[in-house]
Design goal:
Blueprint lengths: L4 E7 L3 H17 L6 E5 L3 H7 L5 H9 L2 E6 L14 H11 L4 E7 L12 H4 L3 E7 L7 E9 L2 E7 L4 H16 L4 E6 L5 H17 L4 E6 H10 L6 E4 L1 H12 L11 E6 L5 E5 L18 H13 L4 H16 L18 H14 L2
Parallel strand pairs: 1-2, 1-3, 3-12, 5-10, 8-9, 8-10
Antiparallel strand pairs: 4-5, 4-11, 6-7, 11-12
Helix pairs in contact: 1-10, 1-12, 6-7, 8-9, 10-11, 11-12
Catalytic activity: (2R,3S)-3-isopropylmalate + NAD(+) = 4-methyl-2-oxopentanoate + CO2 + NADH
Function: Catalyzes the oxidation of 3-carboxy-2-hydroxy-4-methylpentanoate (3-isopropylmalate) to 3-carboxy-4-methyl-2-oxopentanoate. The product decarboxylates to 4-methyl-2 oxopentanoate.
GO molecular function, one term: 3-isopropylmalate dehydrogenase activity
Length: 368
């Protein structure tokens, strides 16, 4: 049987730095005879623009459609800020999400015990936290038409459109309910039904899907602004949060700080199951290309490594090996190994990106 296939798109900024640590893990799994991936690499984002004049070539897009899973680092950076919108690095990532139809973006926020004092919130608020934000990823205001900057009279007007169809809401709601059934059996849906028609439809459809198909799951609704406040006030009230593309983007960065650092948050972007039973899938850290720390060896690779663990679980049915990676991360953190983003106000000596990766490999080795 053919080896499982991976396409690595490390991208820009710290993307390649954190992805190097994932490559070490892939090599480790190979050396140990646990699993050998058929790995190919490609360009996305600014590096692709530099090489080809586009943030994603058709060839790379086609390869992404063929493989079992895509691993992505991060895209973007100040060098590209003034580019025409159509060729900005971020458009490469949006194209991947849209054309692969990766509508369900799972963004778990889990607070490792060793980091409960590193969150900007009190230990009691975050210790033991384990929630998942399910973000709709292929529609909403990032994709709606009309969009653009137009002249209206003698001034410019910027337009983006929030647009959701019933079926788009229904499918992401189903993925949230399915996930909840495997966890705490609770879903909180967040929108702004008080001020947006798309929010009214969102609330109605989520409720309908619940009543018809998932009456056993506890469902609540919350306005997204209150949701942001509740995430800071008492995040452990949540199990699964389902929300739209924009609110999910913002709320998940916020949830990152409940775990100690944005450098800790992984994600899985999943489509519907294909004929082989596997969903189309892309795995990437929640963070961006972090231009402020690029090239300094300061990036925390854990979000990218935990994204690879999600790939093992969701694309390759290797739950036990995913747990092995997660436990290795937990062990390293418990041993006090910290990248700079995880330093408390009292300071200490941070390890580099590669040292963190090496420590995680050593913990994997010890787990055998
Ligand atoms: N999925 C993606 O590829 C994303 C790309 N971006 C792009 O990244 C660029 C920078 O955006 P920002 O708003 O600065 O967001 P960012 O997520 O890159 O960085 C925000 C802050 O978090 C820190 N940070 C992020 N990841 C870290 C890590 N692994 N370890 C330690 N510290 C980390 C950064 O140093 C920075 O201070 C922009 O071009 C943006 O469009 C932003 C978010 C997601
Ligand atoms: C296209 C991305 C840059 C948007 C983003 O911040 C994200 O998906 O987290
Ligand atoms: Mg974001």
């Amino acid at each position: 049987m053919a080896n499982p296939s991976l396409l690595i798109l490390a991208g820009d900024g710290i993307g390649p730095e954190v992805m190097d640590e994932v490559k070490k893990l892939i090599a480790w799994f190979d050396t140990k005879g646990i699993v050998t991936f058929d790995v190919s690499e490609g360009l996305v984002g600014g590096c692709s623009y530099d090489a080809h004049g586009t943030p994603l070539t058709d060839e790379t897009m086609a390869r992404a459609q063929e493989v079992d899973a895509v691993l992505l680092g991060a895209v973007g950076g100040p060098k590209y800020d003034k580019l025409d919108f159509s060729v900005k690095p971020e458009r490469g990532l949006l194209r991947l999400r849209k054309e692969m139809d990766l509508f369900s973006n799972l963004r778990p926020a889990q607070c490792f015990d060793a980091l409960a004092d590193f969150s900007s919130l009190k230990r009691d608020v975050v210790a033991g936290l384990d929630i998942v934000i399910v973000r709709e990823l292929t529609s909403g205001v990032y994709f709606g038409e009309p969009r653009g900057i137009f002249m209206e009279g003698n001034e410019r007007v910027g337009i983006n459109t929030q647009r959701y169809t019933e079926s788009e809401i229904a499918r992401v709601a189903r993925s949230a309910f399915e996930l909840a059934r495997k966890r705490g059996n609770k879903v909180c849906s967040m929108e702004k039904a008080n001020v947006m028609e798309s929010g009214i439809l969102w609330r109605d459809v989520v409720q309908e899907i619940h009543d018809k198909e998932y009456p056993d799951v506890a469902l609540t609704h919350m306005y997204a602004d209150n949701g942001a406040m509740q995430l800071c006030r008492w995040p452990k009230q949540f199990d699964v949060i389902v929300t739209d593309n924009l609110f999910g983007d913002v709320l998940s960065d916020m949830a990152a700080m409940l775990t100690g650092s944005l450098g800790m948050l992984p994600s899985a972007s999943l489509g519907l199951p294909q004929a082989n039973g596997r969903p189309k899938a892309l795995y990437e850290p929640v963070h961006g290309s972090a231009p402020d720390i690029t090239g300094q060896g300061k990036a925390n690779p854990i979000a990218c490594i935990l994204s690879f663990a999600m790939a093992l679980r969701y694309s390759f049915d290797m739950g036990a090996e995913a747990t092995r990676v997660e436990k290795a991360v937990e062990k390293v953190l418990a041993d006090g190994v910290r990248t700079a983003d995880l330093m408390g106000p009292e300071g200490g000596t941070p390890v580099s990106t590669t040292q963190m990766g090496d420590a995680i490999i050593a913990a994997m080795e010890a787990s055998l």
